[in-house]
Prior knowledge:
This protein is α+β, with helices and mostly antiparallel strands and 447 residues long. It has nine helices and 18 strands. The chain folds into two domains: 18-50 and 301-435, no CATH class; 64-297, no CATH class. Helix content is 40%, strand content 30%. Strand 7 and strand 8 form a beta hairpin. The mean pLDDT is 80. It comes from Labilibaculum antarcticum. This is Inner membrane protein. The chain crosses the membrane at residues 21-40, 311-330, 337-356, 362-381, 390-409, 415-434.
Amino acid sequence: MNDTQSPFDKVNSWIKNSVGLKLGTITILMLLLLIPASMIKSIISEREMLNQSVLNEVSQKWAGKQQINGPILTIPLLYEYEVEDGKIITKTKYLYLLPEQLTVTGKIEPEKLKRGIYEVVVYRSAMQLSGQYNLKVKIDEDHLKEIKYNEAFLTVGISDLRGIEDQITLNWGKQKLDVQPGSKLSEMITSGISIDLPDLSEQINTNIDFSFNLNLQGSQNLSFIPIGSTTNVNLSSTWSSPSFNGNFLPDNREVTDEGFSADWKILQLNRNYPQTWVDKNMREEMQYSALGVDLIMPLDDYQKSMRSSKYAVMTIALIFLVFFLVEILNGRKIHPFQYTLVGLALCLFYILLISISEHSNFNIAYLISAGITSLMILIYAKSVFKSKKFTGVLTATILGIYGFLFVTLQLADYALLMGSIGLALILGITMYFTRNINWYKINMKTE
């Protein structure tokens, strides 16, 4: 019998038994499986965008983000100018005054609205705004003809007027004044309310107290412009996941599972606009000084699903590593098609996770998805490995991966730390179990 092999037989034997070729094939399969993994990320992004569109739609019907700016006191000034031909022309300018003191005390009551399978956070707020104006004003009297104290008015900026729930009455000194819809300072405050004031000529060089209640509904965000020489804002709510934003963080805040409370104190020196000015648009400067709070969903299901999908490469690589080591240590040949089926089963986990989490609690969805995927792979691997020992190793690996991933998703602030530690442990374990393998002499021959 002739034991010599033909070139074709040698090539065929090398293809079947080459460790390097098998590793290359597995690597190519992993790269190809990144295509469905990328498609899964696209699906999650699309569902998140649909959720955002529902949020915007509900906000349009309820009320959008709310920002309170004011009250701003405006007094018309009449100037006379003589031109070259001796004619006299008049021009009206406007004097803007901000309050010496502004105090805002508010309570925010969040509500969850549902549209289909989506959940949107909105709120109702009850606020009391109070403060004091000092009418000791120095005005440039050059060409000044008249100060129209009888035409003075207040303007309060409110981003979305649909959110006003009750009639607003302004307490101005000892008088009660009604408000009118619309802003008379359209360039500075695009949306708001106006209050015509009584003749201020008898109140010059005095301090005037003001106050009003504002019951306002909105969604996602509530913010304020600190226009007082000293502005104090105190907010409280039963919402346990606030995000404080703007250019000023609270001086004091407390966040618990029962809700939050926060206090701001802003001085005139902290902002880049004065307490009084004439004929200037300070809109940008005011917007830059805004402060407020977002009512955010605490790491919603779409964020968790997207974060979990980022670990798809690691999950596929580890499971494939177990299958490859079984080939090396147990002599069981595993066809690339079998690797592919296992990889697709791992990708299926993310589809199950996002679809089930839209209809139930995320943790329950995770348990169901991981359970189905693990069971599919383990039943399939048992028939492939023909070994309880290696099936047990694969079981421990899968449970470890999904357990590690679940813990990482829960610890949002420590996700990077957990991920890096987990990867270090995985690499260390892999190095330990493969430390005695002679990769130059090993081959893929079966028992």
